[in-house]
Description:
The complex is a heterodimer. Chain A is 36% helix and 27% strand. Chain A has nine helices and ten strands. Chain B is α/β, with parallel strands linked by helices. Chain B folds into two domains: 3-150 and 333-374, Nucleotidyltransferase, domain 5 (2-Layer Sandwich); 160-328, ATPase, nucleotide binding domain (Nucleotidyltransferase, domain 5), CATH 3.30.420.40. Chain B has 13 helices and ten strands. Chain B has helices spanning 3-19, 24-28, 65-69, 76-98, 117-134, 143-154, 194-204, 211-219, 244-260, 266-292, 307-319, 329-332, 337-348; strands at 34-39, 44-51, 55-63, 107-113, 138-142, 162-167, 172-179, 182-188, 296-300, 323-325. In chain B, a hairpin with a 4-residue loop joins strand 1 and strand 2. In chain B, helix 7 (194-204) packs across helix 8 (211-219), helix 7 (194-204) packs antiparallel against helix 10 (266-292) and helix 10 (266-292) packs parallel to helix 11 (307-319). Chain B is globular and about 75 Å long.
Amino acid sequence: xxxxxxxxxxxxxxxxxxxxxxxxxxxxxxxxxxxxxxxxxxxxxxxxxxxxxxxxxxxxxxxxxxxxxxxxxxxxxxxxxxxxxxxxxxxxxxxxxxxxxxxxxxxxxxxxxxxxxxxxxxxxxxxxxxxxxxxxxxxxxxxxxxxxxxxxxxxxxxxxxxxxxxxxxxxxxxxxxxxxxxxxxxxxxxxxxxxxxxxxxxxxxxxxxxxxxxxxxxxxxxxxxxxxxxxxxxxxxxxxxxxxxx
Amino acid sequence: xxxxxxxxxxxxxxxxxxxxxxxxxxxxxxxxxxxxxxxxxxxxxxxxxxxxxxxxxxxxxxxxxxxxxxxxxxxxxxxxxxxxxxxxxxxxxxxxxxxxxxxxxxxxxxxxxxxxxxxxxxxxxxxxxxxxxxxxxxxxxxxxxxxxxxxxxxxxxxxxxxxxxxxxxxxxxxxxxxxxxxxxxxxxxxxxxxxxxxxxxxxxxxxxxxxxxxxxxxxxxxxxxxxxxxxxxxxxxxxxxxxxxxxxxxxxxxxxxxxxxxxxxxxxxxxxxxxxxxxxxxxxxxxxxxxxxxxxxxxxxxxxxxxxxxxxxxxxxxxxxxxxxxxxxxxxxxxxxxxxxxxxxxxxxxxxxxxxxxxxxxxxxxxxxxxxxxxx
Lengths: 246, 376
């Protein structure tokens, strides 16, 4: 089973090639270069270095969202294009699940990945990965106020490991509102990585077989947030504010 | 895909990556050039398969107009979300209708700008992936050059040089087409695009979105001479346009009527406004053709579907013995066949985009995606 993975949900851009239990290659950039310019050249480099024949891959794994709207669309459009041209299925992985998977096997602490969603909000979820048992979702990924997450963690009363750019952005809020022992993951474990996406996708495949496959044509990203125009419209605000014609 | 074709293609791909250019022989061994093109710059998700630029095997367009109508205009984030939902199906349908597989293609083309950045990026990312997976050259295309090229599809005899008026919701350009892929911008709008003025006036007189077709229809039952709206001129640059003055004077007229308690005849306002806009568009284009000594005039862009503009431009051309060209409405609206046609002429020049191709939302006519060597 060979999986090519893409991860573009944040500022970092990452692609990896995994065959069964082995990561053949991974290429990640987090230097501010536009994902739109770097993703496919990085895949091309990965292909060359691993001497990959693209037609031998079995599936394309990707982060299905949430994250930067444009970022997840670049990854999704790339994965859908590969799926279409290579006639391969996709394996979508929730962004926060893949991020938390960076800290597989870290014991009794709760894992709290956070992506900055601006306006005092984060895309977050709660996970645990105790030694000797499976990686488990405690609270599925969602969009919420940082204060809500803090309250939930205080109620749980367990130690927490934070990771992701949201935990950097809201470090002060976390310091003020989280009253259980916590720490922040180090840089090499704190960011979204395509190798985690591929490894989690491989776990899905081992557990569910082809049930984890998604049709590249039908796949659509999970944004967890409506567009601003839709939010305004639902709130009954003046619709003419959102108009722009290019 | 047949393995041999793929192996050969990936071999050439490696050569291209190493040498940075397509080998001439690569082109000479091609008889027909088959291009898959993708367009997603605004609110139409489109894909097409063309042969040698001018022969259209398929031209699929998935319009999002219904959802944007709810908001009175195109909402960029919604447009991007819809593109990603429809993109694969549209490409698949274009390939199926054309009876082609990815194996039969010679290149993948995509609109790189101008347009909405998020919308452009979905098409660009998809096109890159298809090109990369199939070992094909990627050709980034200028959206406005695409609109102009729609004329080559509509009339197989048309060749440069000619004057072209590109009018749409986002663009108003008067262009001298000097050769394939060679353009000189003679005039552009200083404020609103022509189509934007139609949308704004349509909203003000209660016709709603999209304004172009609705004003066109209402104007048929109105008197174009009922109200004299100003013909916008730009001091010192005879081929530039300004539509905000016409739009403001329509709004003033509506206000005045309202204050006097007079009833507004929507059809008359639509017809008189349209007349003012068309007057300026036709006058400028004819003057440009005369000055440049061009005996051919072409229309392009969504507003080129406007019946008054078509009729008046045609009549003006006939009076001055100038040949008139105008694509059918399906090629005036945003579509991918026009992108495939423009890409073909780039392909013949050996041009190819890198996989690092980015969206250029503010790309102007005369600016090239291929650096300075492209010239103008």
